[in-house]
């Protein structure tokens, strides 16, 4: 069984991200992939974001790949993209919320409410919840000066605590990352944060999956 992660964002969705799309990570050998997938879903904008009910359906494995999300109409049974026969690989094993650092302190109340509702639904399904704070260098001058200051930054610590308090995701399940933007070459410090977050997400997914398998066998 392949651990699956569903990622939602709080910022503006592009046309591409309106699709419920699953991504695999290819290994060095062509046509071979790592044993986990990421499913991207439309953002949680205040007025034109994804409908919470559709996210709940995705958590349960009811949304087929490439479904075009509609902020005004929810997916329903009978639709060609409604998955009537769910297998374990269709279900989500980790809920990932991606939040730009410069939006944490002024997140709209409606967006916060959506995250809380989705998080509660995930908890009821036994799905762990994780958050990634992106663009940390743009919100914290000391990190922009030196990325190694990431865990020394008082600003970042307060930001993570605020996010945890607002949406209910545990502090030790929130991971800061710096985005690649104009760089041509890879940067070890940037990669270290990204890979650390990825490793924790995979671990959470495996733990969740193994726990559910042990319960079904018991």
Short structural description:
This protein is α/β, with parallel strands linked by helices. It has one domain: Rossmann fold (3-Layer(aba) Sandwich). It is 35% helix and 18% strand.
Can you tell me about this structure?
This protein has a 7-stranded mixed sheet, sandwiched between helices. It contains 6 helices and 7 strands. It is an alpha/beta fold. It has helices spanning 52-59, 109-124, 136-139, 141-145, 154-167, 188-217, and strands spanning 4-9, 19-26, 33-40, 67-68, 94-100, 129-134, 174-176. The protein is 35% helix and 18% strand. A hairpin with a 6-residue loop joins strand 2 and strand 3 (33-40). It has a single domain (7-217), classed as Rossmann fold, CATH 3.40.50.
């Amino acid at each position: 069984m392949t651990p699956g992660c569903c990622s939602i964002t709080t910022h503006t969705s592009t046309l591409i991200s309106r699709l419920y799309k699953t991504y695999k990570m290819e290994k060095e050998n062509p046509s071979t992939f790592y044993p986990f997938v990421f499913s991207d879903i439309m953002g949680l904008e205040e007025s034109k974001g994804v409908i919470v009910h559709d996210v709940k359906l995705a958590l349960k494995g009811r949304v087929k790949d490439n479904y075009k999300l509609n902020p005004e109409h929810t997916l329903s049974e009978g639709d060609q993209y409604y998955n009537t026969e769910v297998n374990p690989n269709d279900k989500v094993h980790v809920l990932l919320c991606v939040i730009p650092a410069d939006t944490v302190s002024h997140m709209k109340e409606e967006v916060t409410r959506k995250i809380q509702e989705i998080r509660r639904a995930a908890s009821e399904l036994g799905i762990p919840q994780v958050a990634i704070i992106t663009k940390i260098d743009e919100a914290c001058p000391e990190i922009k000066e030196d990325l190694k200051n990431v865990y020394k930054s008082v600003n970042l610590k307060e930001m993570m605590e605020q996010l945890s308090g607002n949406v209910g995701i545990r502090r030790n399940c929130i991971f800061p990352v710096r985005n690649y933007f104009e760089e041509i070459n890879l940067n070890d410090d940037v990669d270290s944060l990204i890979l650390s977050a990825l490793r924790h997400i995979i671990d959470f997914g495996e733990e969740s999956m193994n726990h559910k398998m042990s319960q079904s066998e018991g």
